[in-house]
Amino acid sequence: MIKKQLIMEKALELFAKQGFEATSVQQITDHCGISKGAFYLSFKSKDELILTLIDHFMMQITSDIDHIVKTSKDDRLLYDIYYASYSYFYKHLDFAKIFIKEQSQTFNNEFILKMRYYDKLHEKAILTMIERLYGEEVKHTKYDLIYCIKAFMKMYGELFFSEHEPLDFHLLAESLVEKTNILAKYMTISFVSEDYRKLNEYTSNEVVTKEKLVEIINQKIEEMEESIEKESLILLKEQLTEPTLSPAIVKGLIENIRNHPHCKWISYLLGDYYKSIF
């Protein structure tokens, strides 16, 4: 076994029993039968080891879900996603309990970025599944449905911490399939729009340049019918390429598009871009 894998495997056993804080590097090396020097050749610190373990688990479940989305038949897809997620979670329940209890120990910027990254990958896979299963039926509610599915996974997963007997994963998955299908069929009021999701992705992941803004605005102008909002977008694009307008006028143009359902994201990006002059 590769030394790094050995350290991860043995450390996982100790973390599951004792927790992150109570487990020392010395205990890990003793459990592995290696020196501290050998440990530090693989990991700079215990925190790096913990993050590597979390990374490993997230990569595994992400890969599994992606594979299921790509290979499962439509009549099994949703069930397979729920069943696989809970099975994997239960398999590593001891570590999951410690992680949830002591995650503040690893709650640094790197950890936050990792979790956001994997969360976006999961959302992407769930969206692909939703569009495949329900198509046009959920055109206006599919983004809400993503959050509903994520909430099901999280809230029902909490049963693992309160139940003393093993849960029936088959029944749980079938129950959630039924609930998800009902929501997909009958949900009509949409809260999470595509523009809202784009805004959310931007705030966590992306710095938008002037060139990117012009590209986004051009695309939106082509999609829109003649209106005050479209005229405002044209003027805002011209302002980006050849600035001539006062800050007050720019702010007014952004306000013109702010309440248009397809311009919320652009108004946010422009507001952020011009925040130094407002």
Task: Report on this structure.
This protein has helices at 3-18, 25-32, 36-42, 46-71, 74-91, 93-102, 109-134, 142-157, 159-162, 169-186, 194-205, 210-223, 228-241, 247-258, 264-273. The chain is an all-alpha fold. The chain folds into 3 domains: 3-43, Orthogonal Bundle (Arc Repressor Mutant, subunit A); 48-186, Tetracycline Repressor, domain 2 (Orthogonal Bundle), CATH 1.10.357; 207-273, no CATH class. α4 packs antiparallel against α5 (74-91) and α11 packs parallel to α15 (264-273). The chain is flat, with a radius of gyration of 24 Å. The mean pLDDT is 85.
Gross morphology is flat
Secondary structure tally, helices: 15
State mean pLDDT (0 to 100 scale): 85
Structural class based on helices, strands and sheet pairing: mainly alpha
What is the CATH architecture assignment of the largest domain? Orthogonal Bundle
- Quaternary organisation: single chain
The residue fraction in helices comes out at: over 70%
Please indicate the percent range of residues in DSSP E strands (runs of 2 or more): under 5%
Radius of gyration: 24 Å
DSSP strand tally: 0
SSE order, one letter for each helix or strand: HHHHHHHHHHHHHHH
Low-confidence blocks of residues: none
CATH topology of the largest domain: Tetracycline Repressor, domain 2
CATH class of the largest domain: Mainly Alpha
Q: Major sheet, described briefly?
A: none
Distance, first to last CA: 60 Å
Tally of separate domains: 3
Domain HTH tetR-type: 1-61
Keywords: Coiled coil, DNA-binding, Repressor
Coiled coil: 207-234
Organism: Lederbergia wuyishanensis
